[in-house]
Design goal:
- This protein is α/β, with parallel strands linked by helices.
- The chain folds into three domains: 106 residues, Cobalt-precorrin-4 Transmethylase, domain 1 (3-Layer(aba) Sandwich), CATH 3.40.1010; 108 residues, Tetrapyrrole methylase, C-terminal domain (Methyltransferase, Cobalt-precorrin-4 Transmethylase, Domain 2), CATH 3.30.950; 43 residues.
- It is 43% helix and 17% strand.
Length: 267
Amino acid sequence: MLAVCATPIGNLDDVTLRVLDELRRADVVLCEDTRRTRILLDRHGVAARLVSCHRHNEASRTAEALARLERGERVALVSDAGLPGVNDPGARLISAALEAGISVTVLPGASAVETALVASGLVGERYQFVGYLPRREGELRALALELERWAHPVVAFESPRRLPTSLAAFAEVMPDRAAAVCRELTKRFEDVQRGSLRELAERFGEPPRGEVTLVLGAAETERAGTSAEALRAVAELVEEGVSRRKAAELVARLTGASRNALYRATL
């Protein structure tokens, strides 16, 4: 059996009793970084055989783990933090085990995504997780334009080094969008900074310390879409000789609709 085990995102005491029991019973524990997993196991007095399984050796480790599973061994899979397979190594092994007809069980636990969402105060009935933000400037701006139209909260991971650049790009497209920068969640120096994207971009002009999860609040209903009346108003202004960009800006100012959405929709 393959047991996919969630591990703490920061505070080592957030591990579940089920996960600790599974790690004790496993014949081998596949982990992203044996050093980090050893710290967790030592903290809770668990003795286990650790084998590394990260993005650079995942293919070979998957083959080795499948052989163990087919022999009837009990294999536990963990990542450095959170649930394996979600922006962490493990998805390949899980898929391979299922295709081979091997039993796979998931032991849930701490989640940086949901912890940040609740801590931000921006939680809604639904949300979108977009993983790590793109590094290229063009891709980052394209994502910002896409997120501007989403009328629900968004959660993303970002490195502290790139946070100022990402916040500036988002603030350029949707400056008044409510957001929160969540750092070092569940750790001793946990910090959640809330405000508009414009305010946060100014606040984080320099890279902060610690792991970062970024949350965007839901877009305001009026700004999330473009009404038929707003589109007609833009079209009429363009017919009168006003530039499309200026027309979109004027109508957006009067109606609260998104300027960029109006411009694109009337091209």
